[in-house]
Amino acid sequence: MTDLSKGRILVTGGAGFIGSAIVWALNRRGCENILISDFLRASDKWKNLAPLRYADYLEADDLETLVLNQPQQLADVRSIFHLGAHSSTTETNATYLVRNNYEYTKALAHFALEGGRRFLYASSAATYGARETGLREDLPLSSLRPLNMYGYSKQMFDCYAQRAGILDVVTGLKYFNVFGPNEAHKGDMSSLVYKAFHQIRETGQVRLFKSYRPEYPDGGQKRDFVYVKDAVDCTLWLAENLSGGGIFNVGSGRATTWLTLVDSLYTALGSKPKIEFTEMPVTMRSKYQYYTCADLSKLRGAGYSGAQMSLSAAVQDYVQNYLVPGKHLGDEAAAN
After folding, report:
1. Are 110 and 102 in contact (CB under 8 A)?
2. pTM here?
3. Average pLDDT of 180-190?
């Protein structure tokens, strides 16, 4: 058992999507002794920070300098949620991804282990590559073939942790298709719910790719969609209750069609669906996945029994409480 209220908590990527949601969830538990680190640059990620309560902030390169050269200045950190990464699946600068996603994670992991700290890090379902069935954590890591460099940069650390013999003390989180508040800054990498919401506002309709496999109708392609509030609940449970480490899938355990997702969005907006099916770029067709679903057997076997929102309830919460009023996680506390 880990008491997160004891000692400072470091959240990297803490201004980002899942990272800021972690801070929000910690705040709801009364935890405010939090050090947030991120690369803010010229993005609007800072808006995710504004409603949150935390003790201090460090730019990610300053954090790396302290970890490598002056770790004693971080002696009070007892738990680390490493959510920081460059997450674009279209990034082609492999050197940048290796340094930012792999080497940075290695440095933080060893800093954590040398100080007896709890360390959880974001892996990704992208490490499964083109596989569409049997997405289980017990697959040999060396057998996985990610489809892009982002996924491979995550795979690199998973494999390193296994080779270094530290997977029994650190925890990797293979997040599936996470959606929800605080993702606006992600641009092209934001969820379909976010993109479709703005498409509806601008044009009244949603665009989806046609299917090129006969067993899947247009819009019948399936994904494992998980609401960010459920993803962070699972993450914090693992941080507090898991004895040891390992890699865990974090998803809903349900495969849902794009059409069902879009129908839920229109229902939340109180309007009838209007969908246009468009041609998928030829370069995407050979790599496009038609089905993903997280196998949650290992997570449930570890004891996690958290109840997840239904997809329709999650979309309704996201749309009506965040997208329509233009709010972030934490704004709800200020309104009370």
Report:
1. no
2. 0.95
3. 94
